[in-house]
Design brief:
homodimer, about 350 residues, alpha/beta, Rossmann fold, six-stranded parallel beta sheet, 12 strands, about 40% helix, about 15% strand, DNA-binding
Chain lengths: ~350, ~350
DNA sequence: CTGAAAGCGCTTACAG
DNA sequence: CTGAAAGCGCTTACAG
């Protein structure tokens, strides 16, 4: 058997490591200590200009890239946050995420995307990422049912975005009940007396808040709650189609207007109505909630409630980073309730008369 | 001045660290070495069952959470990948991202979201994250113009998803030209002889490939390319509205069908046509590209090309992880060309006759 | 302004 | 199967 002298046992190493240089190499090259190189990078104000120059030159020569894994480990900070959503491909969420990413990026934080798919295991796994230091905090949109991370771990930097009245812990949101009532009021002002509802999933906190607003609006207008014109969807376009069809088939008397708990269901409902030759808004008025980008392009353009997405995202990032920095001056269970916008478009018309099925 | 004996100088420390325990504490508690604790967690097969039990018990007692920052640093792996898109809130991208997240998560990788907003600085910053070890690799959708990371750094684990024929480096894509030609062929089979085009941004590689397919289709059918029915958009709904309006205003003779380079512009075009009382598909047929979720719900439901999103995302993750693991058996510039689906819906009808403006 | 040195919390050959 | 020890690449008081 042939022995090769000095042949080192080389462990398989990750790609690209061959030409990886470290801070020590830079220091040697620049003729300074590693401490000085480190300072030149992280606290240049503490280093003389001449030294900085030398270091820069050395860095270029060896094409040095600081190992952030080491830096983060050393400073016990990951400089990333996880953003949890039940479904990224939902346009409302993706639009908010876009804002979050922008604001986080601006502050030097990376965004770890967590699609929980309403699955508790996945949610837990992402929450564990902050417990294990892979992320410094969490922004969550619509927590999965009852389990809220805040309950189990109180000092986890956590913020809920677009939550509801009953949300535990810190929450940046809109007054869902008031906004929904606003919609009902508007329809009432258009002489509608028979206002249906396409609700979201029953257990969902948003459904609860918005249902409350719907009922309040009805009550204030002296209208009675009629279960036969309340259908249940699950916040998707498809479920809106089904819910509208169901309502048309089973209503004691057809509504002249329908409040939808989000835009997607409203879009689905319009589709269902169209295929039955029911005209929106001439025959039935429709309102949505969220003001997703598409709302202004559907036919007719949808009257809806706009949540100030970008503003809310910014507040969420801002406040989360403060919590991460240990600033607890704001009580941990504060709800920031932001103003919503009523967006008037073309999906509503004055009620003509009650329609009999 | 009063000196307080033994009062330690305490650096401000990140939240929650107070009750943080480390591997040494677990080891002490379990009466074993830190090496054994480490092995119990990472390579349990090398540890006796009895020891594992002891370790588990100790972990529970001190509520130990391994510091992944340390682990990743030590193993020189971040176990995360960055996913670069020009715009997350674009439904096509968010739908693909959703799949990527799922497949990455399944393989134990986190997804760092990078919204480049077609800005070169942002793109570079994210690419730098893999150079600095914060991410192990990149999946990019539609690189910003000419600058492709592959050019500058050849051993960066990089994959392009949904790129084009001219994409440098590894790419998972569809044959954009063939798919677009397929659309033209279909319209020709419906007796359309005057087929307009709403193109995307001029410099965009997708625009180039799809334009090629459009021209090929025209040529094969013996139709001539007429600039007056080619309008330019930028892949957004709004730009589709404008492009369609422009085309209607300036066409030498109105088209009987319009090929749109993506669904969003198709949706915008339908909106524009509607507001001019031009009926789709009776007066003008429309086809899109991408098959975003919404395509089936617009009015009429859109005939389009479906890219196999989930399949492509899976291949991308799969192959990227291989590259990260140092498997270079597949040539670095391989293009995986996946089959597209022609999705027939209701937005096209046989041509009646040429319409004169 | 700079350097020597300790140490962050793990992992992993190595020797037993 | 287990432990002692080295070391991953940085940062940061501390002393000069």
């Amino acid at each position: 058997m042939l022995h090769i002298a000095f042949a080192p046992i080389v462990a398989p190493r990750p790609k690209g490591e061959e030409n990886m240089s470290n801070i020590r190499e830079v220091a040697r090259r620049a003729g300074v200590s590693v401490a000085t190189v480190s300072r030149s990078l992280s606290h240049p104000e503490k280093v003389s200009p001449a030294t900085i120059e030398k270091v820069k030159k050395a860095i270029d020569e060896v094409n040095y890239r600081p190992n952030m894994l080491a830096r983060n480990f050393r400073s016990a900070r990951s400089y990333s946050i996880v953003v949890l959503v039940p479904d990224i491909s939902n346009p409302f969420f993706s639009e908010v995420i876009s804002s979050i990413e922008m604001h986080a990026h601006k502050r030097g934080y990376a965004v770890l995307l967590g699609d929980t798919q309403d699955d508790e295991e996945r949610e837990k796994r992402y929450i564990r990422m902050v417990e294990t230091r892979l992320a410094d905090g969490i922004i969550q949109m619509r927590p999965h049912s009852v389990h809220n991370p805040v309950e189990s771990n109180n000092d986890l930097p956590y913020i809920n975005l677009c939550g509801t009245e009953g949300t535990l812990g810190c929450c940046i949101r809109v007054d869902n009940a008031a906004a929904t009532k606003h919609m009902v009021d508007y329809l009432v002002s258009l002489n509608h007396r028979r206002i249906g509802l396409i609700a979201g999933l029953r257990g969902n906190p948003h459904t609860i808040d918005r249902l409350k607003g719907y009922k309040q609006g009805l009550e204030e207008a002296g209208l009675e709650f009629d279960k036969s014109i309340v259908a249940e969807g699950e916040y998707t376009i498809w479920s809106g189609v089904n819910a509208a069809n169901h309502m048309m088939d089973t209503a004691a008397e057809l509504p002249t207007a329908i409040v939808c708990m989000n835009d997607q269901m409203a879009i689905g409902a319009m589709q269902a109505l169209r295929s039955r030759n029911i005209k929106v808004p001439e025959d039935i008025s429709i309102v949505g909630f969220d003001d997703i980008d598409y709302a202004r392009y559907c036919d007719p353009p949808l009257t809806t409630i706009a949540q100030p997405r970008d503003d809310m995202a910014q507040v969420a990032v801002e406040y989360l980073l403060r919590r991460i920095d240990g600033d607890n001056s704001v009580p941990i269970d504060t709800h920031f309730v932001r103003p919503y916008d009523f967006v008037l478009r073309k999906s509503c018309a004055p009620a003509k008369k009650h329609q009999v099925k």
